[in-house]
Structures are given as structure tokens and as C-alpha cells.
Design brief:
Elements (H helix, E strand, L loop, with lengths): L1 H13 L5 H24 L7 H10 L3 H40 L3 H26 L1 H18 L5 H18 L2 H12 L7 H30 L3 H17 L19 H14 L1 H31 L7 H30 L5 H26 L2 H33 L5 H25 L2 H23 L10
Helix pairs in contact: 1-2, 2-13, 4-9, 4-10, 5-7, 5-11, 5-16, 6-7, 6-8, 6-10, 9-10, 9-13, 9-15, 11-12, 12-15, 12-16, 12-17, 13-14, 13-15, 14-15, 14-17
Length: about 475
């Protein structure tokens, strides 16, 4: 106890004037992350050859070491871009509210415009991604983000509104163009299908890690250059990402048939919607994504005012709590492969492991959001604070765990030829859920909103279970 107390006191002397509970939280989450990373490092095994890999090695006449080295080179060429892009994105997100507050503009209208823009352009944007190329789409994303962050320099409401409209477009590109490029390129290079899990897991880990780093870097830039500083840093990072993207090869929808040049944009658009309409599995994947991510976004709007309203001793240092939540995401990403391996070897078949893992993650997320729903409804705030804070850490762990699982399921059920189109179609109901969730935070009590979020995750788990108990078919890769 003395050692733990002295460590907390030492850290409290280095960090800003944060309450003891916040310092202890940071210490505990840092230790948990370090232990999780260490265990994962010493227990992971890249040497074991799967049956699929053996077939690939026999066909390509390569050694396991050569194939693994080629894969790691490809993986890091993608992750280097992903890390920079997500760092830039998080730097904006952590300070956008305070920037708009300093401009004295209608903040709700700006955020709502961004979501509505995303919903409006989502049905069409994906077809453009597949038709004109995923690499080009990633470059366009970078250009748009540079323009958007430049527009943030101006306090004129119309200029900021234009930035939010462009932001809706760029967000759709961020969550479709990059992933669809990576998935198609992975298969085009002939890597084993199960190795996709490693890249998705790394992305989830990188997402949480860059969020923690972004909070520190953005704060330093704000101290140096004012509220606009983080956005200036985001411009530099996005420009760097664009240079890195130029190293990539291009890939398209329908490339395997060589028909992307002849396929019209209209055909890409119509075929994408037809697939969603006639393939119930693709439809359910999209619905699950809308429910789970919509619930997550609603939680993001709720956690700060909820904790502030509970008035814990010493107040709520949101930066410290944010860093702890992001560490929980990182831990979830690290745990993805061990969890999937456990379900694939102990509970179900390897083919069904992603589906069962997703059910597990969504049920845990639902249970975590039931805690604040019940506590805020039935118990005094002082009694509930630690329970509610623990539930917030748990849902972020579930986000880190479910994110790579969702990516694996999209790669499993969505054909490569229509990855961009269908992933953007998925964002249409997602934006609808987010807008509804944002509106709900204004008209309902917090415990009611958390109850709705818990229901969203539970519904996602039920739909996911319907995929888990169905028959598994061979993945259509073209």
C-alpha cells in the first residue's frame, strides 16, 4: 500500500493538479495496458503455419519467413498512414468544441450539419471510391482534410458550415476508402485470410494509442498557438499522410474481372444497393454497424456531462479520464486476437469465431451501459461514481475489442468489388442513429439515454447471433 501511495503521490507532483482518484485511475490503466501488451508479446506466435498458409507457400514457392516479411512490410505501409491519419483526426476532435466556443457560433448546428452531410453523401460516395480507385480516394480525403482544417481558421459561420459539409464527406472516405484499399490489396498480394486479423487488431491498438498521444500533442499546440494550434498540426500531419499514400498501388472495385474501366458509376451504385437488398447477411452487417457505432457515438456525447453532473471529489479532469478511456480501447484491441482464438478453439469453430466474439463484445457493451442507466435512476450520485466510471472503461474496452472484429466480418461478407460502395451505404443508417442519439441527449434524462444505448448494443448482439448460428459460406472476394 505504501509503495502504491508513494507512486500516486510522485505522479501527482509531476502531473497537473488532478484529484487523487484521477491519478490512481491513470496509474491503474497504464499498468493494465503494460501488462496486456507484455502478455500479448510473449504469447503471440507468428511461426505456426495454418493450412491456408501452407497452400499459399506451396503455390508461391516461398518460405514462411519470406511471406511473413512481405506481409509485415505491407502491413506497416498501411499502418504508417493509418497512425498519422488517426492522430490528425483525434487532434481535431479533442479541440473542435473549444474552438467553436471561442468563435461564439451555433455549435449544435455545426455538428448536426456534419452528420447530415455524411448521411446525404454516404449512398453515392462509396461507388465513386470503387470506380475511381481507393488510393485516389484516400488522397482526396487528405486534400479535403487540409482544406477543412484551413477553413477552421475563420470564425465566419458560413465558412465553418462549409467545413462541416466537407467534413461529412471526408468522414465517409476515412471509414471506407482506407479499409477497402487495405482489404483488397491484402488479398491481391495473396496473404492468408486469417492474417487480416493482425492488421485490424493493430488498427484498433493504434486508434487508442494515437488518441492518448493526440490529447497531449493538441494541448501543447494549443498552449503555443491558441485554439487553432491543433488544427494547424492536423494540416501538417495530413500532408505527411498524403505523401505516404502516394507509395501505394491502386486498386478498384471489380478489378479481378478487369471490368472497373468499363463499369459505369451508375452500375457500381445500383449493384451495391442490390447486394445490400438481396443478401441478408450484408444487410445485417450494416445494421449491426449502425446500431453499435451509433450507440458508441451517443456515449461519447454523454460521458463528460454525466461525470461532471456527479460532482466527484476534486472535480473531473476530462483530459485524464479521456486518456484512461483511450487506454481501455487499446487494451481491447490487444485482446482481440486472444479472444477470437479462445472462442475459435474452446467454444465454436474457427470459421465462426469472429461472429461469436462480436456477440460477446456487444453483450458486454450492453451490460456496461445498463450500469449508468440503473445507477443514475435509482441511487445517489456519490454512491454511483466509481461504478459509472468503471462501466465507461468497460464500454471503451468493448469498442477496442469489437472494432477489429467488425472489420473482419466486413471483409468476410462484403465482396471486394463493392467494398467502398457498401461500406458507405452502411453509414447512412449509422448517421441516422447518431443524429437521433444526439437529439435524445437534449430531451431525455441521462439514465434514459444510457438505457437506449444499452438497448442498441443488445439489439446488435441479437442480430449478430443470427449470423453466428447461420451457415458459413465461402467469402466472395470479387
Amino acid at each position: 500500500m505504501d509503495g502504491k501511495s508513494s507512486s500516486s503521490e510522485l505522479l501527482a507532483g509531476i502531473l497537473p493538479d488532478w484529484p487523487q482518484w484521477a491519478v490512481s485511475l491513470l496509474l491503474a490503466m497504464s499498468a493494465a495496458l503494460a501488462v496486456t501488451l507484455a502478455i500479448n508479446h510473449f504469447t503471440s506466435n507468428d511461426e505456426k503455419e495454418s493450412p491456408e498458409e501452407k497452400k499459399i507457400l506451396h503455390k508461391s514457392h516461398k518460405t514462411h519467413e519470406a511471406l511473413l516479411a512481405e506481409f509485415n512490410s505491407f502491413r506497416w505501409s498501411y499502418l504508417s498512414v493509418y497512425l498519422v491519419i488517426m492522430l490528425a483526426d483525434w487532434m481535431q476532435g479533442t479541440h473542435m468544441y473549444t474552438l467553436y466556443l471561442s468563435y461564439n457560433v451555433n455549435i449544435s448546428a455545426l455538428f448536426l450539419t456534419g452528420f447530415l452531410s455524411g448521411a446525404l453523401f454516404a449512398p453515392f460516395l462509396g461507388s465513386l471510391v470503387d470506380k475511381f480507385g481507393r488510393k485516389r480516394s484516400c488522397i482526396i480525403y487528405c486534400v479535403l482534410e487540409i482544406i477543412i482544417n484551413w477553413l477552421e481558421h475563420y470564425s465566419h459561420f458560413g465558412t465553418l458550415l462549409l467545413g462541416r459539409v466537407l467534413g461529412g464527406i471526408s468522414t465517409n472516405l476515412l471509414f471506407s476508402a482506407f479499409e477497402s484499399w487495405m482489404t483488397t490489396e491484402h488479398r491481391r498480394k495473396g496473404f492468408p485470410e486469417e492474417w487480416l486479423a493482425r492488421t485490424y487488431s493493430d488498427c484498433s491498438i493504434a486508434n487508442g494509442s494515437t488518441a492518448v498521444l493526440a490529447g497531449v500533442v493538441a494541448q501543447v499546440l494549443e498552449d503555443l498557438f491558441g485554439h487553432i494550434g491543433p488544427f494547424q498540426g492536423a494540416i501538417a500531419l495530413t500532408f505527411l499522410a498524403m505523401i505516404l499514400v502516394f507509395r501505394w498501388d491502386e486498386n478498384y472495385g471489380e478489378e479481378k474481372e478487369g471490368s472497373h474501366a468499363e463499369s459505369s458509376l451508375y452500375k457500381q451504385f445500383v449493384d451495391g444497393w442490390k447486394l445490400v437488398a438481396i443478401d441478408s447477411k450484408i444487410f445485417r452487417i450494416g445494421l449491426i454497424q449502425a446500431l453499435s457505432e451509433g450507440g458508441t457515438y451517443t456515449f461519447v456525447f454523454m460521458w463528460v456531462p454525466t461525470l461532471l453532473g456527479m460532482d466527484p471529489p476534486g472535480g473531473v479532469p476530462t483530459g485524464a479520464v479521456f486518456s484512461s478511456l483511450m487506454m481501455a480501447i487499446t487494451i481491447g484491441g490487444v485482446c482481440f486476437q486472444p479472444v477470437e482464438q479462445f472462442f475459435g478453439t474452446r467454444i465454436t469453430s474457427k470459421a465462426k469465431a469472429p461472429e461469436i466474439s462480436a456477440v460477446f463484445a456487444y453483450i458486454m457493451a450492453s451490460m456496461s451501459m445498463a450500469v449508468p442507466a440503473l445507477c443514475l435512476c435509482c441511487a445517489p450520485a456519490g454512491v454511483c461514481f466509481e461504478k459509472v466510471l468503471a462501466s465507461f472503461l468497460l464500454i471503451e474496452f468493448c469498442v477496442g475489442l469489437s472494432s477489429p472484429i467488425a472489420g473482419m466480418l466486413r471483409s468476410k461478407y462484403v465482396p471486394d468489388a463493392y467494398q467502398g460502395a457498401i461500406m458507405n451505404i452502411f453509414r447512412l443508417p449509422l448517421n441516422a442513429v447518431v443524429v437521433s442519439g444526439t437529439y435524445a441527449t437534449d430531451i431525455f434524462e441521462p439514465y434514459q439515454v444510457f438505457g437506449v444505448v444499452s438497448g442498441l448494443f443488445f439489439t446488435a448482439a441479437v442480430i449478430q447471433m443470427s449470423l453466428a448460428i447461420g451457415k458459413t459460406k465461402e467469402v466472395k472476394k470479387d
